[in-house]
Write the structure tokens for this entry.
Amino acid sequence: MKKRAVILVLIVALIAAFWGAWGVADEAGEVSADCEYRMPSDSDRAENLTDDNVLSRLTVRDTESVEILLPEEGADWLYIEWYTLPERVRITQRDGEDNELSREDLSPEKHLQTYRLSEGCREVSFRVTAGAVSTLRVYRGELLDTLIHYDEAADSKADIVLLLHSPEALFEDFSALLPLLEDQYDGEVAVVCVNAQRRDARRDLQEALWSLGIRSEPIFLNFTDNEYNELSDIEKNWGVAKTKERIQSLFTELEPEIVIASGSTEDMRAVFLKEQLDAVLAEGAEVTLYVADENGTKLNCEAYVEAAKQAYELMDSRRVFRIELSSTLGLTRLSGDAELTAKLATPTPEITPIITEEPTAQVAETELATSTAPSIQILEASPAETASASSAGTDGKTQRDEGEAFPILPLIIAAVAAVALLLIKRLRLRTRLIFGAVLIALAGLLCFALYSGWFEGESVVPSPTAELQPPTESPAAPTPSPTSVPTAEPTFTATPTPTEQPEVVEYELPYYVGEAGEEIIIDDENGRWSYRNADLAVEVERISTTVEQGGKELPLTYFVAHIYQRNYNSFRAAFASQYHNGVDCSTPEEMARRYRAVLWITGDNLINAEPEKKGILIRDGYSFYTTGREDAMVLNDDLTLSIYRHGEISRGAMIDAGVQESFSFGPTLVYDGEPAKLSRGTNRNPRCGLGMIEAGHFVAIVVDGRQDDYSVGLPLKDFAELFLQQGCTYAYNLDGGISTAIVFMGRTLNRHSGDREQSSWQRDVPEGLSWGYSLSVEPEQGGE
């Protein structure tokens, strides 16, 4: 009897041990949500680390540290994305009893870092010197190949350097050159980007390269920004002498034989880069320089274009531009011999696949259309999407690969136990056979349960981040039924009272059109303009009415633009000049055409006029002015509009939270669905403002004024009422008066008298707000 009991206990223990080991192995993936974060001062800053916004960051002072309490099961990897590389980081690991397991002082050289955690580690702390963290993740098990991570000890030498003036130049200037080089040239290729001031652009470049199988990190020559990204410091750091010094240092470190620079473009950054390269070469740098140029020797890249196109699709910050990559590329040789050009101009018939790794469950394999093209596997899931999918939200359990072996160990254990039972002679043979059969059946059931995921709940299949759907009044189907933008009629509660609005023609269109193109309607006579593509819909309506004042009916004309956007990059802050200094000015129409903007409206005049009366002014993540004397309007990456009250937030906290654009002219018109208390702006003037109905649905209103025969304008109180009628929960007043403008598809819709005596003339402005990008907009000469 004792023998039987011992044997049964051993069997149960073996199965339990195996079950436990299987369960731990099965919980591989991201476990960030199961961790506890202890911040140095205010705990709400933890979301800057754990959100999916690569533009947000945590700046930790030298005397502070961040502590991460791991889940009971522990973890294997700490994954850090640096917003700015630190001079030094100290990582300390402790066990569950606060005993120190290890302490490392490191000087990271990669923006994306993975740190192996010690066995038994339950707490990790890190202290940063002169740096900031953008993203922090914690993983258990092996890292997925779709998670971008680089080897710190990788060889820093390169035979060829692709020198980009900005991330988008990799494909927009070089087309399919990188896949061509990887396949046709026997040597290491390094991608160097001189300027990637926005962190989302840097991440886009990393994802595109990773999808092509490039496992070395692109090099960014940006100088380390100061804590608040002051524009003046950036300009000073990027002086001619320092940039030249950086390029010389790069050549010394990489020792390339060939440098290929992004070329014939009027982009300020490309011109500046070319000047510095010429200066370095004039001093005898031993490299052969080529420039991507439409007039150069044509290289046949057709077999590689599909790979480049699919990689380019991962660059979210550029996708809105819908730029078609060319199947040919011109290279102009500026020095040395033409060996590379000759070799690449006639690629060999046999094409080696660029990426040879077997796809994982997160990889979508795409065959190229032509028979001569290489078989290339494009990793479509971004690191953030993969991390989210692999952790199934919070439980850290992943779907098994299709080819994973059926677990047979429980069956083997059960079979051994059954044989042991047969050897126990004190039991009847029938009893031994029944017990053995039951054990084998239970083991088989356990195997099937483990394999099919019965104990895990439903398997999780990774899927792309859900796109913002059209507003609730729009059908959810891919091709929604036609709807029309509501026609607004002013019903001001205070004098003057508007008269009934004239009847206008209704246009019923879906919110978005398919991926193939765009749809544009221009009806000047009836005052209706609309634009549609797959990511953006804009409907503008001109409303002409009258208002009563002093027993007289006065004319009033204003424009209401409903803006529906599916991604943040459909919006851009526009600048009048390529120097982005906030001072240089141009006409609104020139600026809108330069950006090929679908819609452009007046901004806050930035620092060109009376910055001391404004608040926090941020553009492209750089701080222009920070007094905080006025409320600030922020356009967030989650497609919402926020209004920060005067003194509510500092410029440092804004930038840490990932704010890239803030506007401050004021005042606030609508806050949390209620009209704001307005103590100024009682005169009738031209007005411009922006409001939000819901995430991704904005309303811009531009009012003409100071023209007695056309439109007299509005006081701020009545202007705020217009936004409330449209259903806005938040609305903000932007620069009006002689700055007021609304431009659709490169044409100004509103009007000024042009007579300075009437204070109604269009002045040049330094910046504005723009949505969309369309090649149907005729650019100004020298524009983008």
